[in-house]
Amino acid sequence: VQLQASGGGLVQPGGSLRLSCAASGFTLDEYAIGWFRQAPGKEREGVSCIEKNYVSTTYADSVKGRFIISRDNVKNTVYLQMNSLKPEDTAHYYCARQYFYCSGYPSDIRFDSWGQGTLVTVSS
């Protein structure tokens, strides 16, 4: 059972990136997937979460209107489209799963199967 985040990189302020969270060893369609990030010297924080039904999504206030979470259960992958990136978005980004719903989100306590993450650096 594994979730692997990818798609990070170096981008200029105002730019865009799309992160992918690929699931292996289990079927994604029974799970909610949350995106979290951790900047150097800071605690991990919730960014966005999407429930198993495709419809219910939630976002941190700091990314609302800029980030879009989506899922493709056929490809067993969840995406995080990040637009209008800011230097304060610089962090390691992780995805994790929770059965069915984003319960307790933005707390990460109920999520499991954390992958290694992908680094996003927003800098000119």
Structure description:
With 124 residues, this protein is mainly beta. Helices cover 0% and strands 48% of the residues. It has strands spanning 2-6, 9-11, 17-24, 31-38, 45-50, 57-59, 67-72, 77-82, 91-99, 118-122. It is globular and about 40 Å long.
Give a concise summary:
This protein has 124 residues and is an all-beta fold.
Looking at this protein, list some descriptive labels.
48% strand; 124 residues; mainly beta; four-stranded antiparallel sheet; six-stranded mixed sheet
- Round the mean pLDDT to the nearest integer and report it: 94
Percentage beta strand: over 45%
Question: Which structural class is indicated by helix and strand composition?
Answer: mainly beta
Give the N-terminus to C-terminus distance in angstroms.
37 Å
Present the secondary structure layout.
Blueprint: E1 2-6, E2 9-11, E3 17-24, E4 31-38, E5 45-50, E6 57-59, E7 67-72, E8 77-82, E9 91-99, E10 118-122
Parallel strand pairs: 2-10
Antiparallel strand pairs: 1-3, 3-8, 4-5, 4-9, 5-6, 7-8, 9-10
